[in-house]
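Training component of the fellowship. As part of building independent skills, the fellow (R.M.) carried out the full modelling exercise for a liganded target. The chosen ligand was adenosine monophosphate. The inputs are recorded below so that the supervisory panel can assess the work.
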Amino acid sequence: MDVLRSVDEIRRKVQIWKNEGYSVGFVPTMGYLHEGHKSLIEKAASENDKVIVSVFVNPKQFDNKTDLETYPSNIQGDKELVENAGGDVIFAPTTAEMYPNGFATLVDIEGLDKELCGATRTGHFRGVCTVVTKLFLIVAPDRAYFGEKDFQQLAIIKRFTKDLNIPVEIVGCPIVREENGLAMSSRNSKLSLEEKRKALIIIEALNVIKEMVYQGTVDAEELKKEAVRKISTIDIAKIDYFEIVDPDTLEKIDEVREKALAATAVFIGKTRLIDNMIIGE
Ligand code: AMP
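Fellow's submitted model of the complex:
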């Protein structure tokens, strides 16, 4: 499994493939790959002739220095996982390659970045939009694959690729969970066993309100209250946000009459975990 570090190298590779008439799928990641990433790579491999996986921990999307510095990495493990999932090459640029001296351009989006993760992580989505735009321009894929685990990120990426006429098809992929329901995340490796057990409260709360909707509760405030109450029973859980929103606009809704998205970010100890679930289908 080749790991290419420079923009020129990956461009040359893609050019050769395009000259051969191959379609190119792209899976952007921050590395420390797990089964959730694997599902994206496998889907990309099933729909494209060639698959590029990028591994880049993008400093511009971190609002917390410690979070950036302690982000896990394991390029050897990543190489094995990409190989097993049917990927063809890893693009793992250095920060200097992506943001050389004098770098001064940012891609910003209006509206969609204000709620949920955007409300508490200042500049996060500007960093995401900037890096993903750069990666799209470098890799020029036919299709790019993103997880619904980062639901807001997926909505934002769909929006700016459309707005900027970037010729790439954005494909959303379902959340992959541990057997016990915990959404897979590279950040789960930061949790102790005890914290992992306590983190299950997140999926339990989502399941409870999904069931409440099924049983007839429509009041979003009541649903949110119950979810918050449940998560708060765990001593080390600190809710960053818990919202019920329209899955298309991400705007808060008052009543769950049709498909709605319950989305949350919760600190378990020092580790911030996100999860979401469609309720009211
Ligand atoms: P990350 O490395 O966390 O930036 O994630 C890279 C991509 O993998 C993003 O599109 C994520 O939404 C996706 N992803 C991460 N965890 C999961 C998961 N448990 N299920 C599905 N997709 C995921």
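The panel noted the following from the submitted structure. The CA atoms of residues 49 and 185 lie 27 Å apart. The first strand starts at residue 2 and ends at 4.
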